[in-house]
Amino acid sequence: MAREDHLVISSGKAVQPFHYAVGLYGSKFFQELKENRRLVGSKCPDCGKVYVPPRKVCGGCFKEMKEFVEVGPKGTISTFTIVRYTFIDPETGVQRPVPYGYGFVRFDGADTVFQHFVELDEKHPIKIGARVETVFREKMEGTIRDILYFRIIEE
Ligand SMILES: [Zn+2]
């Protein structure tokens, strides 16, 4: 095999016929996303840390978190990668176009990072510390795909 050849293994038209519950806090996250185009996290009553997506218990204090706070939709890239190797996307069953960006973003008002796609744009190169805005899908459905990607912005 030549160096530039890519190995692609297809599992055919694989179907994933299962559903799972995202829980009370996951439901709140997706409900806010779908109905209000808002990103929410949960805030610890003790240390004030904000988790996105929301979690029920603070990992540092072990306190139950009952307060939901809006975060973003802007944020900052904490780290990223540019995927250049083709593979079959398990979400769609088809080969994902490359290259594409994938990053960890800390939403404004949040203390944790959120993973998702980052738009690659020659005018605004992806880098740690870059500011981003969330690009939502036009018709929200209450899934993670309501967030299309993060777009790098200048501020
Ligand atoms: Zn805490």
Number of helices: 1
Overall domain count: 1
Bound molecules: zinc ion
Level of helix content? under 10%
DSSP E strands, number: 8
Give the helices and strands, then pairings.
Elements: H1 23-36, E1 39-43, E2 50-51, E3 67-71, E4 74-83, E5 100-107, E6 114-118, E7 131-136, E8 147-153
Antiparallel strand pairs: 1-2, 1-3, 4-5, 4-7, 5-6, 7-8
Zinc ion is lined by residues 44, 46-47, 49, 58, 60-61, 63.
What would you say this structure looks like, in words?
By secondary structure, the chain is mainly β. The chain has one domain (about 25-155). The chain contains 1 helix and 8 strands, in the order αββββββββ. It has one helix spanning about 25-35; strands spanning about 40-45, 50, 65-70, 75-85, 100-105, 115-120, 130-135, 145-155. Strands 6-5-4-7-8 form a 5-stranded antiparallel β-sheet, with no helix packed on it. It has a 3-stranded antiparallel β-sheet with strand order 2-1-3, covered by helices on one side. A hairpin with a 6-residue loop joins strand 1 and strand 2. The longest helix is centred in the N-terminal third of the chain and has 14 residues, at about 25-35. The chain starts with about 20 loop residues before the first helix and ends with a strand. The model has no long low-confidence stretch (mean pLDDT about 90). Bound molecules: zinc ion.
Quick recap of the structure?
The protein is built from one helix and eight strands; from the N terminus they run αββββββββ.
